[in-house]
Automatic annotation (TrEMBL):
<dbReference type="InterPro" id="IPR002931">
    <property type="entry name" value="Transglutaminase-like"/>
</dbReference>
<dbReference type="GO" id="GO:0005737">
    <property type="term" value="C:cytoplasm"/>
</dbReference>
<dbReference type="Pfam" id="PF13174">
    <property type="entry name" value="TPR_6"/>
</dbReference>
<dbReference type="InterPro" id="IPR052557">
    <property type="entry name" value="CAP/Cytokinesis_protein"/>
</dbReference>
<dbReference type="InterPro" id="IPR038765">
    <property type="entry name" value="Papain-like_cys_pep_sf"/>
</dbReference>
<dbReference type="InterPro" id="IPR011990">
    <property type="entry name" value="TPR-like_helical_dom_sf"/>
</dbReference>
<dbReference type="InterPro" id="IPR019734">
    <property type="entry name" value="TPR_rpt"/>
</dbReference>
<dbReference type="Pfam" id="PF01841">
    <property type="entry name" value="Transglut_core"/>
</dbReference>
<feature type="domain" description="Transglutaminase-like">
    <location>
        <begin position="127"/>
        <end position="235"/>
    </location>
</feature>
<protein>
    <submittedName>
        <fullName>Transglutaminase-like superfamily protein</fullName>
    </submittedName>
</protein>
């Protein structure tokens, strides 16, 4: 039996071929042969969530609820949200934190209860309170999760009606935010506890998503943190908040502790969180953008994966760069990955140029770089469908004029 994290390219090809054959039988409604083929897939890869989910739903349709529950619980164990939802909402099974393997240990909950001031006014104060009860980085992040669930709420008005993002301090003071603020809280918290982290943007499927839609702009932000010699994914927003778009009431946010979205494996996150920069798939053969965009859920296995990517070297390079250069590099990766979305590259090229122009001691080479970035941003603006991005054209022109003036006198 092959374990998911140790799959070689040859093994993956064998598994993908078996899964495609099983899907074909499933689409032909040859139920029993399809079940047999999906079982072969699981024999090859015990962590194949799509095969496990098909086995669960097909056995359930045949009336074999115990077998369905067995496969669903395996899926929950692997943090498959479909399995979790099916068990909880359709089979009315009680799901415990232990079922998710991302549960909050009772000892951690006890430490959270010992935190004296849950209404601390700054992230510095919140961090000090957490550090006073825990010296373990993983547990400290789990305590941040519990604090966020207790203290924060989603800014529904801004999500549905628009508005400007908040600074981290504003979000803490107002006790509200969206994914931008929540991911910034994690990023700044990691800096304070000296844990390497990346804040990333990317794509998730909201209720209005339709398979085949072009992904023209990122719509979510989350984090990756380095714990116990490996990178794990953290979505603090989804871990504490859910968008309820079902029923007769208008869509709204509800508080819900969902620890399967916190400290999860990057490969598992790909089913619902696609990083704009493929480096953050942490996979030498990243999934193509179409594998996510063409599927209503999970990753379409029939879409060919991308060529070899040395993500480990890319991560090392990014960690060595200044924050501005890092964001620019990530934006270049993102545009190469998805040409339908130039927005990240436009924004980060413009921001990088502005940081240079605002520095009175920028060198001649720096100013040339600023001019190149502004020219690149300006050339890509016509490709964007975002009004705020299009409005940057005049600012780019003004920046180019300023760069030329400073270059004329630069040494």
């Amino acid at each position: 039996m092959l374990m998911g994290n140790a799959l070689r390219a040859q093994d993956r090809q064998q598994i993908d071929a078996a899964y495609k054959n099983a899907l074909l039988l499933y689409e032909q409604k040859d139920t029993f042969k399809a079940i047999a083929e999906f079982e072969k897939v699981v024999q090859l890869d015990a962590d194949h969530k799509d095969a496990l989910y098909h086995l669960a739903t097909m056995n359930y349709a045949l009336g074999d609820q115990p077998t369905a529950i067995k496969f669903l619980k395996r899926g929950v164990h692997l943090h498959d949200r479909r399995a979790l939802t099916f068990l909880r909402d359709q089979l009315h099974q009680k799901i415990t934190y232990a079922d998710t393997m991302q549960y909050i240990d009772p000892a951690t909950s006890e430490k959270f209860d010992k935190i004296k001031n849950l209404n601390a006014p700054t992230l510095n104060d919140i961090t000090k309170n957490i550090l006073s009860v825990s010296s373990n980085a993983r547990e400290q992040l789990q305590l941040l999760l519990l604090w966020s669930h207790h203290a924060m709420r989603a800014d529904g008005a801004r999500f549905f009606n628009g508005g400007f993002p908040l600074s981290t301090q504003q979000a803490i003071q107002k006790r509200t935010g969206l994914c931008d603020e929540y991911s910034n809280i994690v990023d700044e918290f990691c800096k304070k506890i000296k844990v390497q982290s990346f804040r990333v943007t990317g794509y998730v499927r909201y209720p209005d998503f339709q398979p085949g839609d072009a992904l023209r702009q990122t719509n979510h932000a989350w984090n990756f943190v380095y714990l116990d010699s490996s990178w794990v994914a953290c979505d603090l927003f989804w871990s504490t908040t859910a968008l309820d778009a079902e029923g007769s009431t208008p869509p709204h946010f509800v508080k819900r502790l969902e620890p399967e979205y916190f400290l999860g494996l990057p490969n598992d996150f790909l089913n619902h969180h696609l990083p704009a920069d493929p480096v953050f798939q942490f996979d030498a053969s990243p999934v193509a953008i179409a594998a996510f965009a063409n599927s209503p859920d999970g990753i379409d296995p029939q879409v060919k994966r991308m060529p070899y990517l040395n993500y480990q070297d890319s991560i090392k390079t990014l960690l060595k760069l200044s924050p501005e250069k890092r964001l620019l590099k990530m934006a270049k990766h993102a545009y190469s990955y998805n040409k339908d979305n130039p927005n990240e590259l436009i924004k980060e090229s413009y921001n990088y140029a502005v940081s240079i122009l605002n520095d009175k001691v920028s060198t001649k080479n720096d100013l040339k770089s600023a001019k190149q970035c502004l020219a690149l941003a300006k050339s890509l603006i016509p490709l964007s469908n975002d009004g705020d991005i299009k409005a940057l054209k005049e600012s780019c022109d003004a920046g180019l004029t300023m760069a030329d003036k400073r270059l004329a006198t630069a040494k």
